[in-house]
Amino acid sequence: MRFWYLLLILLLSACQTEDQTDSNHQIEIFTWWTSGSEAAALQSVIDAYQTQYPDVKVINASIAGGGGSAARPVLQTRLVGGIPPDTWQTHHGAELMGQYINPGFVTSMKDLYESEGWYEVFSPSLINMVSKDDEPYLIVLNLHRSNTLWFNKLVLSEHGIVIGETLSIETLFEIAEQLSRAGVTPMCMGDTGIWATGIMFENTLLGTLGPDRYLGLWNGSTHFMDPAVMQAITTYGRLLDYLNNDHAALSWDQAADKMARGDCVFYSMGDWAYGEFKRDGLVENIDFGWVAHPGSEGTHLMVTDGFTLAKDAPNADVTRDMLRIMGEREVQENFNLIKGSICARTDCDRSRFGPYLQWAMDEYANGVAVPTVIHGSAAPADFQQALNDALTDFVVRRDVASFAETLAREAQMSGFGS
Ligand code: GAL
User: Fold this and answer.
1) Which of 3, 36, 177, 394 is deepest in the core (most CB within 10 A)?
2) What is the DSSP string of 6-47?
C-alpha cells in the first residue's frame, strides 16, 4: 500500500516538473495574418524573438480569413472556455474594450510600458486608445490606413489616363465608363469575406460625409437616414456595378494580385494591399499608384494592430519577452516595411520607407484620424456584425432605404444611434 502511495506521489511530482518545464518554453501567438505579406511580416517578428530566445518554441496559431472574420469567433470560444492563447491580435477601440478588456480576458501592460520607456515613444493619444483607467492593454505594432484607392498605372496609361494627386468620385465614374467600353474591368474586389466590400462602403461613406459627420455616426449626432448616408449608399451601389465578375470567389489578397496583373484597375482597400503589391514585385509610382479614396482627402481612416497579454497566460514570462520585442523600434520598422503600414512608435527611421509609406506618414501626421467600423474600432461587435449582414443583403438587393433603415435601427439597439 505504502509502495503504491509513494509511486503515486512520485508520478505526480514528475508530471508537475514536466509542466513547469513546458510552461514558458513555448508561446502561442494568435492572428489572422496568413496572406503572403501578412505571414511574412509576422514571421519577421517571430524571427526577431527567436534570435534572442532560440529555445522557446513559438506556436503560430494564425487562422486564415482577412479582417479576422474567421479568427475572432474561434478566439472568443477559446477565451470563454478558459483556454486562451498567450497573446492575440486585436484592434483598438470598441473591439479591444468590449471583447477583451471589459470581460477581463487581458492583463494590463503598464509595467512593460514603464520599463521599456513606451510612454515616451508612443503618442499619448495612441496610448489612450488602448487604455482603460490609465492601464494600457495592448502593444501596438502598426498603423494601417484603410481609405486608399490603389490603381494599376500601366493599364491606365495604355488608355491614356493619368491620375493626379486626388481623384473625385465623378472622375472615377467617367474613367470607369471609359475602361468598361474598352473591355477592361474598372474596379477590383475579393469579398469571400464580406468585410472587404465593407471597406469600399466605409471609404465611400467617409468620402461622402467628411470626417465630422462620419464621426457623428458613432456618437449619435449624424443619423443613418441622413440624405448624405443615402447618397453614400447609392454611390457605393454604383461602384459595385464596375467590379470584376469573380469578386465573390476571391479573397482580398487575390483581388490585389488581380490588380497587380492588370486584370482590373482600381482597388479601394486598406494598405495591407501595399504589402501584397510589393510582394508581387510591383514598383510604386511606376506599376501602381494611389490616392485617397475620393472625397476622403485629409482624413486617415485608421486601423491599428496590436497584441494583448492574456489574463493567466499559460506562458506569461516568455510572452512578456515577445511583447517587449514587438515594441522595439527596429522590429517595428522591419515588420511595417513588409506589412504596408507605418510604425506605431513615433521614432522610426522615415528614410527606410518608400514613397507610399512616407505619404501615409504625412497624411496621418497632418490629417484627421477617424476610427473604422469594419475593423471593430468605431462601434460594438453587434453593430459590426449587423453592418456585414446588411452589406450582404445590399449587394444582392440594392435597396438603399432598407440598408439605411437597418443601420439606423441597429445603431439604436447598440446604444449610440440618434
Ligand atoms: C485587418 C488588419 C490588417 C490586415 C487586414 C486584412 O483587420 O488590421 O492588419 O491584415 O485585416 O487581413
Assistant:
1) 394
2) HHHHHHHHHHHHHHHHHTTSEEEEE----SHHHHHHHHHHHH
On whether the CB atoms of residues 34 and 253 are closer than 8 A, the answer is: no
Q: Output the pLDDT for position 19.
A: 45
CA 178 to ligand 1 centroid distance, Å: 32
Same topology for domains 26-142+303-366 and 148-301+371-414, yes or no? Answer: yes
Residue 173 CA to ligand 1 centre (angstroms): 28
List the chain domain ranges: 26-142+303-366, 148-301+371-414
Ligand 1 binding pocket, CB closer than 6 Å: 32-33, 38, 66-68, 144, 272, 303, 305, 375
Residue where the block lists cell 477559446: 78
What percentage of residues in the chain have a pLDDT greater than 70? 95
Find the 374 Cα to ligand 1 centroid distance in Å.
10
Pick the CATH number of 148-301+371-414 from 3.40.50.300, 3.40.190.10, 1.10.10.60, 3.40.50.2300: 3.40.190.10
